[in-house]
Design brief:
single chain; alpha/beta; 3-stranded antiparallel beta sheet; 14 strands; 34% helix; 15% strand; globular
Length: 367
């Protein structure tokens, strides 16, 4: 009997097996085109059907209002660190950034190249939660307010949408928790995210933007990052990442078939609660510094071997887990420890295998 494997990588992450099997067939022949899905022209009707299906699924799953545009770009989330200010900061030259982890800190640093950036949450040596909104000072004259909904490195997640001054667009990096819960898109000016966590493979970034925010790019904005140019050309200004867009279309079709984002949220909570309950009940053997109110549902970050962690025990944890088919559990190098990424394609059964391993590992090493 072959060994079972569960893949907990933070991204590129697990893709549903049934989607992979379908893609495997298409690597030789996409439908009746007689060519590989990798070879289908972005100017063909066949690819037109693919990108339209992807947009249709995005709109249906997130109930995207009619006055929002859906675009597929390249450059990943990091490309959007520049694209957001290049497209939006011209209104007042200022922007507010709610920095709660590594990714929002990098986004703020990039945006500062193009305007005046205010970090409304002071930078920290270690990010452990979302500070209370009462401690924020948001500028009503800011061109936009920016935040990262889930920080993959630290395991910090916003559990609600921030309130911002009237008339100030809210921008959100949802790269790691896109499509893991229902979202009121109307509260946002821009939502973006790389696909490689929950909705596909690396190579494509999904951007949802309110249409009144188009047309305000700085003169220095490259055309490939100009939302107005991309929208006008229906994401086909240059050759798009065709295969990655197709994978996203197939994964979103799978999400719909499985019950939509409400079901993804239910599973997400079941999986994360399973692991957090073991951490909290371990008597300190497992520990996390993240504020319980800000614990990520999709990236569970923890230490092993007591407060602060024991690097030798953590090394054994990762190695023993890998031997049992529990892969890619090592924490980010900047924070150490363990990180279990529980994205949509990671099943409840995968998570239960990890939970059982954690209990057994504690029994063997608790002394």
């Amino acid at each position: 009997m072959s060994q079972e494997f569960s893949y907990f990588a933070p991204g590129p992450a697990k893709i549903p097996e049934e989607v992979l099997r379908g893609l495997q067939q298409e690597l030789l022949h996409h439908k009746d085109t007689h060519v590989s899905i990798l070879e289908v022209s972005h100017r063909s009707k066949d690819f037109g059907d693919i990108i339209q299906a992807a947009e249709k699924s995005v709109r249906e799953l997130l109930n995207v209002p009619a006055n929002y545009r859906v675009m597929f770009l390249q450059g990943g989330g990091t490309g959007q660190f520049a694209a957001v200010p290049l497209n939006l900061i011209s209104r007042t030259g200022k922007a507010d950034y709610i920095v709660t982890g590594s990714w929002s800190a990098k986004a703020a640093k990039e945006a500062a190249k193009y305007g005046q950036v205010s970090e409304v949450v002071p930078r920290a040596e270690r990010y452990t939660g979302v500070p209370p909104p009462a401690t924020w000072t948001l500028d009503p004259q800011a061109s936009y307010v920016y935040y990262c909904a889930n920080e993959t490195v630290e395991g910090v997640e916003f559990q609600s949408v921030p309130e911002v001054p009237a008339g100030v667009p809210l921008v959100c990096d949802m790269s790691s928790n896109y499509f893991t819960r229902p979202v009121d898109v109307s509260k946002f000016g821009v939502i973006y995210g790389g696909a490689q966590k929950n909705i596909g493979c690396s190579g494509v970034t999904l951007v949802i933007i309110r249409e009144d925010l188009l047309g305000h790019a700085l003169p220095i904005c490259p055309s490939v990052l100009d939302y107005t140019v991309i929208d006008k050309n229906k994401s086909l200004y240059n050759t798009p990442p065709t295969f990655a867009i197709h994978v996203t279309a197939e994964v979103l079709a799978w999400v719909k078939k499985e019950g939509g984002v409400a079901e993804m949220e239910r599973r997400c909570l079941e999986k994360s609660n399973m692991i957090y309950s073991i951490i909290d009940g371990s008597g300190g053997f497992y520990s996390t510094v993240v504020d319980p109110a800000s614990r990520s549902r999709v990236n569970v970050v923890f230490r092993v071997g007591g407060a602060g962690g024991d690097e030798e025990i953590e090394k054994s944890f990762v190695e023993e887990a890998a031997r049992k088919g529990l892969l890619s559990l090592k924490g980010h190098r900047s924070v150490g420890g363990i990180r279990a990424s529980l994205y949509n394609a990671l099943t409840v059964q995968d998570t239960r295998r990890l939970a059982d391993f954690m209990l057994g590992f504690q029994d063997q090493h608790k002394a």
